[in-house]
Specification:
This protein is 67% helix and 5% strand. By secondary structure, the chain is mainly alpha-helical. The protein has a two-stranded antiparallel sheet with strand order 1-2. The longest helix is centred in the first third of the chain and has 32 residues, at 2-33. The chain starts with a helix and ends with a helix. The model has no long low-confidence stretch (mean pLDDT 89). This is Helix-turn-helix domain-containing protein.
Length: 88
């Protein structure tokens, strides 16, 4: 009887640990899903620590970007930026 009690106590404790790990993983997955796919130069500066001057140089060197409107905001796809940074 004592042995059953200890086993039950152990299972409950392990179940609690697993539940906490699952919650943490769900939080991480949620954060990953919130990544913006298109960034402005200011967002790149904050997130990656790349100055606007350096970003301008990267654009001259071939970093792909979009500018939907004439004289409008410059937008850069996160994937394009990360590929460019890996190449250079």
């Amino acid at each position: 009887m004592r042995r059953d009690f200890e086993l039950t106590k152990f299972v409950i404790k392990e179940n609690s640990k697993l539940r906490k790990r699952i919650e943490k993983l769900e939080e991480i997955i949620s954060e990953m899903g919130n990544f913006k796919k298109v960034l402005t130069p200011k967002e790149i500066e904050i997130e990656y620590g790349i100055s606007s001057k350096t970003l301008g140089r990267y654009r001259i060197e071939g970093l792909e970007y979009m500018q939907p409107k004439t004289n409008g905001k410059i937008l850069i796809k996160r994937n394009d930026l990360e590929k460019f940074l890996k190449r250079n």
